[in-house]
């Protein structure tokens, strides 16, 4: 009798807690169940948000993989919350603020235009494309991260702006060589201006969070203007941008090889920067093991996505299997430490550092700054990256 009851309870518990076979599905469904990434902020107001764009990229792939219409409808709902029927983008978006972040929702506009043919999505994309034509730049041509951060290039901005820029160009101006050269140059300038050189202390050969071409910021190094630390999420955005852009920019375009070279340089260094014991990446990659530093989940998920996708598509040759092995190890750490099953069948995602209201290089940009920022439960920047990492990991299994 007792045995039966135990059996029933165990069965019931496993029904309630049963997670889907796929972590990608589980993470996405949990975000949807919480109403995350649907074009509204936590108070229900329209918001053009890059993390919604990141999440929609995962949902689109899940829709293509499973055919489950729920994902598609959720994407439509999210975009319709920020695009009026006449194509005007609202939700705290103003062209003349010249911020790169909102443009990360542009790929979803283009996707919905392809899928539905509705002109409002094209008009909305045109507004974003128009922003780029007038966006302020450094003397070398790098887009400023924001108008209010003059002359600053941040790694994050490449993910926010360039995927959209390339997809728009590919769809509407495939022969615009100026645009392709410009897109390529955004990657190259960012790479050259932020890469750690061999004499840097704790050299990892990776990229500092950003640089100030005018060398005026408190954090700008006197020699090259770069910020002091390699921050995992900034490099995570940049690494996702590398693997995503290569799918868009034709192999016959000279920019393809330029960007490929950057990915091939960084991929093994990212692998080598993982913590040997856990496989995860430190929040501040340049100061492993220092008190208050910790393993951060959004950057780790982004690296897993970028490394696995780079190998899957043949951008990076992984002869000895060490890159995939590093991604697998990190993936196991993520699912064991940062995924928590809830009694309502959803999962929680832990340990993603927040982005403060002010931009992160609006500060000292030093070690103490990064480690002083709190982590956030179910932060969409990390949850969406985990969806993307899981999609790649599950492709590897199948
Ligand atoms: C489709 O996805 C939704 C939620 O994201 C889920 O509730 C539903 O069960 C899925 N449908 C199928 C047929 O898998
Ligand atoms: C587009 O529609 C919105 C909402 O109806 C309206 O506020 C806005 O003025 C319209 N914009 C243009 C350019 O017509
Ligand atoms: C091509 O791209 C450049 C750079 O973004 C832009 O200034 C120009 O207007 C584009 N050309 C056309 C025909 O749209
Ligand atoms: C390399 O970095 C060090 C330390 O930041 C700096 O002093 C040096 O000037 C840099 N060298 C080059 C060639 O940029
Ligand atoms: C180098 O790394 C060690 C170990 O994390 C750290 O304690 C030290 O502060 C770092 N040095 C610099 C200059 O970042």
Automatic annotation (TrEMBL):
Pfam families: Glyco_hydro_88. It comes from the Eukaryota. Residues 1-18 form the signal peptide. Keywords: Hydrolase, Signal. One of its GO terms (biological process) is carbohydrate metabolic process. SUPFAM superfamilies: Six-hairpin glycosidases. GO terms for molecular function: hydrolase activity. InterPro entries: 6-hairpin_glycosidase_sf (IPR008928), 6hp_glycosidase-like_sf (IPR012341), Glyco_hydro_88 (IPR010905), PolySaccharide_Degr_Enz (IPR052043). Gene3D superfamilies: 1.50.10.10. This is Glycoside hydrolase family 105 protein.
């Amino acid at each position: 009798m007792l045995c039966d009851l135990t059996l029933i309870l165990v069965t019931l518990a496993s029904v309630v807690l049963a997670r889907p076979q796929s972590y990608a599905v589980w993470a996405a469904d949990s975000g949807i169940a919480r109403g995350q990434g649907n074009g509204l902020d936590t108070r229900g107001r329209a918001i053009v948000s890059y993390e919604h764009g990141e999440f929609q990229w995962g949902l689109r792939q899940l829709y293509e993989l499973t055919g489950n219409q729920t994902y598609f409808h959720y994407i439509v709902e999210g975009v319709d919350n920020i695009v009026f029927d006449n194509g005007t983008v609202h939700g705290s978006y103003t062209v003349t603020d010249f911020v790169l972040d909102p443009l990360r929702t542009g790929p979803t506009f283009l996707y919905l235009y392809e899928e539905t043919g509705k002109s409002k999505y094209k008009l909305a994309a045109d507004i974003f494309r128009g922003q780029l034509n007038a966006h302020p730049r450094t003397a070398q041509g790098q887009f400023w991260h924001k108008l209010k951060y003059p002359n600053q290039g941040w790694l994050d901005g490449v993910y926010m702006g360039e995927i959209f820029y390339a997809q728009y160009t590919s769809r509407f101006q495939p022969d615009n060589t100026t645009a392709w050269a410009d897109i390529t140059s955004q990657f190259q300038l960012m790479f050259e201006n932020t890469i750690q050189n061999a004499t840097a202390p704790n050299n990892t050969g990776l990229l500092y969070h950003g640089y100030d071409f005018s060398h005026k910021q408190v954090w700008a190094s006197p020699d090259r203007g770069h910020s002091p630390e390699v921050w995992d999420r900034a490099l995570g955005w940049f690494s996702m941008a590398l693997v995503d852009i290569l799918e868009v920019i034709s192999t016959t375009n000279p920019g393809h090889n330029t960007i490929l070279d950057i990915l091939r340089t960084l991929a093994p260094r990212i692998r080598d920067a993982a913590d040997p014991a856990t496989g995860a990446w430190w929040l501040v990659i340049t100061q492993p093991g220092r008190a208050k530093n910790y393993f951060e989940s959004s950057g780790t998920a982004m690296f897993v996505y970028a490394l696995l996708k780079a190998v899957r598509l043949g951008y990076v040759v992984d002869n000895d299997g060490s890159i995939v092995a590093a991604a697998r190890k990190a993936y196991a750490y993520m699912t064991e430490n940062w995924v928590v099953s809830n009694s309502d069948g959803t999962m929680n995602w832990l340990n993603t550092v927040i982005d403060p209201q002010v931009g992160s290089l609006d500060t000292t940009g030093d070690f103490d700054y990064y480690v002083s920022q709190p982590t956030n439960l179910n932060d969409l920047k990390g949850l969406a990256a985990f969806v993307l990492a899981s999609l790649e990991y599950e492709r590897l299994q199948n």
